[in-house]
Amino acid sequence: MGNIIQVISRVFKGAIKAFRRYPAVIANAAAFSIVTIIRIHLDWPQQEAYNFIFNCLHLSFALGAIFSLAVITAAQSRFNTKKSFIIANALGILATILTLILLYFFSGVYPEYSAMRYQRVSVLATARVSAAIFVSFLLFNILAGYPKEQSDFSKAFFMIHKSFFIALLYGLVIMGGASGVAGAIQALLYKGLSSKIYGYIGTISGFLAFTIFIGYFPDFRKGIVDEQRETSQNQPRFIEVLFEYIMVPIMLALTLVLVLWVGKTILEGMRVPFVQLSSIASSYAIGGIWLHIMITHYKTGLAMFYKKIHSIAVILILAVEAWALVIQLQKFGLKTTEYFFVLIWIVALTAAILLMIKKGKAHNIIAIIVGILTIISVAPHIGYNSLPVTAQVNRLEGILKQEGMFKNHKIVPATKEPEQGVRESITDSVLYLSNLEDVKLPVWFDKDFRKNDVFKQNLGFEQTFPSHKGAIVDEHMGTYLRLTQEAVDIRDYSWAINMQDSYGEEDHVTVNGDKGTYKVCWKANQPYGVPNLKILLNDKTIVDMNMNEYIDKVLKRYPLGKANRRSATIEDMSMEFETPEIKGLLILNSIDINVDPRLDKISYWIYPGTLYIDEKP
To answer: Which string of DSSP letters, residue by residue, matches 298-351?
Structure first.
């Protein structure tokens, strides 16, 4: 019991030391928490007008905290003077202020196709701040591994993980206990206690957990040998068992699967969809490097075998992935997915080669490469929001010129319908570009091209998608239609019924006519089923019409393709019917038909709008 109390006491003493060792870090974290509490206190209508500045503050304080952690560690581990300590903290505060100024004056955008009345922080600005935070953390990891007599990158890497999970555990316990007390007060003493109290508790618990996280780090000052460093870097026995006897065999098994896939691909050709391949390969590369760093100092046979075989397997797998990437680029050009896959491919290849040659000494170099590529990914002209866009614009312009559809820097409709493959390529590029945010597009490109009617009017044919007959596709296929704004002639109808989807006949609309009482029911047949329209006259069914025939007509005109929404006309989104008693016109608001080939499941979500009925004489 005494040992447990001693450990807990040491953790909280470390949290208190964090205020003294990292004042700029804690100041930024405290400011972040205060902004969070203010946002919790304000209801949404009040907060909406200030949401932009709140987001700017949150991002600035987050970057300021992690950047301060890196520069203070650099000052203490390299110089250990009062002057360097003051300068480091000042730089941390300055970074916060500069980030806030840049975000406030240059990151605001008004979202397209949105009802938001106020500007928001652009996705690109958020990505750049996130990249700066990540690079700062990498820098801290490198600095925390100094001097080499006491530590290295892998030991510091584990120490950061260990600190995080200890802080997370303490934070959850604090939050759970405090929330339990608040719940008891609310239930037993004061029922009017606002539910916002739990948000306040969560915020304060998060701040305390962060101070514990920072406080768990040892004293990095130059010339100081802190016993806490050895404790923080030490891997407990259960962690060694987890890595060596569970995670290493799992990674070896995955390596075997991927190597067998390489052989199968060489013999049979590329059959795995690129999105699926890139996600598996990226996870394997990142996870493999992470595990390699964690077991750097293991000397057992299984760990040594993994460290030898991993780099060789990665190089072999990456060679085939490069082949898949080339095929993908030839078919669809460079997009965001391919862009990030290229970056991960570069990291994985260089890491594999460096680990083979330099082993544990390669970690700092790998971290530097990762940091450089992270900066490149958000840089102007060559970042994720620029290079793929330029590539797709050039690809689209080239295809249009070949088809005679681009003249005098303007798109002109096709005089004759292009071939299927050309139409698919144009559709693919247009939808990719039109769905991007915060990007600069040429003046001749209209984002309304995403709408099928605008697309057809300007390019001369409808959006066209690959027919995936029997093939495994990269993602769910679907037809997603929305009714365009149009007028409809209803002079021949007496009643207009606002339809609602329901699950049974008890949810119906009643209409009193000359022939009696009509009950109208839209039965959605959930989950996923084909709906049907049912109309009763004096409790006798006169209409019981499912939507199968209509769905067949829709899918013939709008085949299953990628999950992009299209606009459809009244003609496509309506159906007429007639019985001896009545005639009717049903207009639908939207149609979502989704197919998951992997689960062999098809889902129908058909949302009715208005039903017009006229009673026959």
So the answer is: --SHHHHHHHHHHHHHHHHHHHHHHHHHHHHHHHH---HHHHHHHHHHHHHHHH
pLDDT at 342 over 70: yes
Burial, 523: exposed, middle or buried (Cβ in 10 Å; 0-12, 13-18, 19+)? buried
* Structure token digits, residue 122: 């652009």
Query: Distance (Å, rounded) from C-alpha 247 to C-alpha 348?
Result: 19
Question: How confident is the model over 98-157, as pLDDT tens digits?
Answer: 999 999 999 988 766 544 567 889 999 999 999 999 999 999 999 999 988 899 999 999
**DSSP codes of every residue in 379-416:** STTTSTTTHHHHHHHHHHHHHHHHTT-EETTEE---SS
477-483 vs 565-568, strand pairing mode: parallel
Name every residue whose Cβ is closer than 8 Å to that of residue 211 and which is 6 or more positions away in sequence: 15, 18, 19, 26, 29
Spatial distance between the Cα atoms of 156 and 146, rounded to a whole number of angstroms: 9
- Residue 72 CA to residue 92 CA, distance in Å, equals 8
Q: Under a CB-based contact definition with an 8 Å cutoff, are residues 576 and 456 in contact?
A: no
Q: Which residue has the tokens 């991927």?
A: 258
DSSP 8-state symbol, 515: T
SS3 598: coil
How far apart CA 215 and CA 22 sit, in angstroms, is 9
Give SS3 for 521. strand
User: How far is it, in rounded angstroms, from Cα 392 to Cα 390?
Assistant: 6
Alpha-helical segments (H) within 107-187: 123-144, 153-184
CB 321 within 8 A of CB 345: yes
- The answer to whether the beta carbons of residues 530 and 547 sit under 8 Å apart is yes
CB 530 within 8 A of CB 536: no
Domain ranges of the chain: 2-233, 237-377, 387-459, 477-615
Taking the chain, what is the end-to-end CA distance rounded to the nearest angstrom? 90
Q: Side chain identity at 334, as an amino acid letter?
A: L
With b meaning 16 or more CB within 10 Å and e meaning fewer, what string describes 196-218? ebbebbbbbbbbbbbbbbbbbbb
Lowest mean pLDDT among 313-327, 468-482, 538-552, 603-617: 468-482
What the block records as the tokens of 59 is 């991002």
Nearest CA-CA partner of 352 in 386, 388, 312, 380: 312
The answer to whether residues 51 and 120 touch, using CB atoms and an 8 Å cutoff, is yes
Closest CA to 292 of 310, 312, 276, 317: 310
The burial class, CB within 10 Å (0-12 / 13-18 / 19+), for 3 is exposed
Contacts of 6 (CB under 8 A, 6+ apart): none
Integer Cα distance of 390 and 336 in angstroms: 11
Measured between alpha carbons, how far is residue 253 from residues 100, 200, 246, 271, 314 in Å? 47, 46, 11, 21, 13
- Which one has a higher pLDDT value, 347 or 596? 347
Q: pTM of the prediction? A: 0.80
State whether residue 540 is helix, strand or coil.
strand
**Any bridge partners for residue 495, and if so which?**
613
